[in-house]
Each structure stands twice: as C-alpha cells, then as structure tokens.
Amino acid sequence: MEPDPQMTEGRLEALREEAARTGTVQHRGILPVGGPFPKPASAKSYNGNPVLKQPTWTWQVPLYFFVGGVAGISALIALLAHLSHNAGLTRAGLWIGVAGALISPPLLIADLGRPSRFLNMLRVFKLRSAMSIGAWTLVGFSFAVTSAFLCRELTLAGYGNGFLTAIEWLAEIAGALSGLILASYTSVLLGVTAIPVWSENRRLVPAVFLTGALGASAAALELLGFRIPTTQFIGIVASIVEIVIAVMIELRGRYVDGPLREGSVGWLTRAGAALAGPISLLLRIFSGHHLGVRYVAASCFIAGALIARYAWIAAGRVSSRDPQALFQIQHSLNGEHYLHSPDVALAHTRAPVGGASLRHPENVRSIKKKGELS
C-alpha cells in the first residue's frame, strides 16, 4: 500500500525547515490519524454544522408582510383623504385597512403553529425586539382601524354625533401611525438577522417594502374605482422607485446580493421588479387614460409587489446556505489582513479564544507574535 505523501518523514522535515526559516507554515500541515486535533472548518460548514440556520418561515409570512403593509398604508391614505374632505376615498381606505387587519392575524398564527404562541408574544413588550413591536403594533392597528371604520359607518347610517366624530379622528390618527410601523417593521425584522443578503441590505429593504405597500395600496384603490390623479401619481412614483431599486441591485454587483441576481430566485426578483416597475409605469404613462389599461397597470404593480416579498424571503434562504458571504462580511468588519480563512472567521464569530474574542487587540498581537497567523 502506497504511503500518503502528506505523512512521510520527508514532508515533516520540509515543514520543520520552512517553519524555522520563515516562522510560519504556508502550506497544508499534517493531521495525525486519531490525534486530539479538531478538524478544520470547511468553506461550507463549521465542524460539520451549517454556519447559518436557514429561515423556517412558511408561505404565510411573505403574504402577511404584503397584506399588513397594504393595510397600514391604506389607513394612512384614509387619514389624508379625510383631511382633504374626500369621504369616498376615506371609506375605501378604511375598508382595505380593516380587511388587512382581519387577514393578517390568521396568517401570522398559521406560521407560529397555534394561537397560544401569538398570545404569548403579547405577554411582554420589548422595545428592542422587532417581533415584539410588530405583534403589539398589529393588535393596536387592528383596534384603531376597526374603531375608525365603525365610527365612519355609524355616521353614514345616520347615528353620527360629536363624540363619534372625535373617536373617529383619534382612531384614524392612531391607525395611520401604527399602520406606518406595521408596513415597515417587517423590513427591520429581516435586517436584524444574520442572513447576509438581509443584513447587508438593512437600509434598502425598508424602501422596498414601503414602496411596494404604497404602490399596492393606490393600485387597490384604483381597482375599487378610484381612478383619480392622486392614485395615478402615487402609482407612477412607486414604479419609478421600484426601477431605481432594481437597477441599483444589478449595478452594485456585490457578492452578497448574488441571490437577488442569480438562479431561479434572481429571475423571480427580476419578474417582480419588472411588473411593479417598467411594465406598470409604461402602461400608466402611455395608456393611463384607458379604463382597462389602468386596471392592468394596477394589477401588475400588486402582483410585482407580492412577488418581491416572496423573492426576498427566498433570497434569504439561498444566502444562508452560502457561508462565503458571511466570511466576506467578517473580513470587511474587522479590516484585518490576518482573517484569511473560514476557520479564523468562524473562530471570531462562534468560538472564544481563552474566554475572549479573537478581535481583542491583545489576542491579535499575541497570535501574530507567536506566528500562529500569517
């Protein structure tokens, strides 16, 4: 049986000579069989374990992101319409808000598994937890927008009075403020995770979600018959922003954005951007005066915004399976040339050295002095 060339005496002597001459060993060393040495981390895992845990969200979560966002922005539009004395638009915005408030909790509970888990989230309020803020915001928004809706309907039915009017105004203001939080907190929920494509785009995702919610809310109002200059203007602005975001992702060419540009998820992202961006925009600009075309443009934006939610969640799953993206982030954060390998990056992110972080300057100088890192 041929001896392993990596385990010959000649190879061992060569390593010793290189260490004595340069103080470091640049080439692969020898790992004795059965020796008490940990296996080095590969570029795909950490001692056989995934570097990052994949998101476990079900299909209901992206739909909840979309429905909650549309409901929240619709409540804001209802308040602005009320201030502009547009009773019809106010009522329609409240209708959409209430519909979203009724649909959102079941979607969230379906992902959690059982209603008791949602109720447990309401037992405490954590200001630094996006999930806790989101759960309480959903409850507050649902109460506010439903109260405003009931006051509006009672007034239209002839039971209005000064008290109901005051309650409606207060509820609409509360619904608009909580609706803004509801439409945006989901993007913060992605940005605070360790998934590279989400964390590195923590400033971009809020723009994506808010733009999609604004354009989809205006589109929903158009489908309900409000083909007015205001909804047309909102649709055009939202489509332009969608185009800018899509072009930015393509031109930056960052490795961490690879899941948004490559493979099936990349095509899904482009499809959503195309529907909400150029297709909807061109239909509005060149044929917006036709009733049928306006409906098509609104439907395209809604479909594109919904697809974008699913695309970003899918991109997160792909990104979690690519540890190189995480290693590159660690390299840029530390700004040190000695973090060359996944082993060192993982030691920094997951394992302390002597009870202290590898980033600590004393550890860095000690390791460099001993020649353990090149």
Helix content: over 70%
H/E series: HHHHHHHHHHHHHHH
Summed up, the domain count is 3
By CATH, the architecture of the largest domain is named Up-down Bundle
What would you report as the Rg, rounded to the nearest angstrom? 27 Å
Q: What value does the average pLDDT take?
A: 81
Shape: elongated
What is the strand content? under 5%
CATH class of the largest domain: Mainly Alpha
Number of helices: 15
Tally of strands = 0
Q: Ranges with pLDDT <50 over ≥5 residues? A: 336-374
Largest sheet: none
Q: Could you name the CATH homologous superfamily of the largest domain?
A: Formate dehydrogenase/DMSO reductase domain
Instruction: Tell me the span between the first and last alpha carbons.
Output: 36 Å
Derived structural class: mainly alpha
Within the CATH hierarchy, at the fold level, what is the topology of the largest domain? Formate dehydrogenase/DMSO reductase fold
Structural commentary:
- The model is unreliable at 336-374 (pLDDT under 50).
- The protein has helices at 9-22, 60-83, 87-112, 115-121, 130-159, 162-191, 196-199, 205-223, 229-252, 258-261, 263-287, 291-320, 323-334, 342-350, 361-370.
- With 374 residues, it is mostly helical.
- Helix 8 (205-223) packs antiparallel against helix 9 (229-252) and helix 9 (229-252) packs antiparallel against helix 11.
- It folds into three domains: 58-192, Formate dehydrogenase/DMSO reductase fold (Up-down Bundle); 199-319; 322-374, no CATH class.
- The chain starts with 8 loop residues before the first helix and ends with a helix.
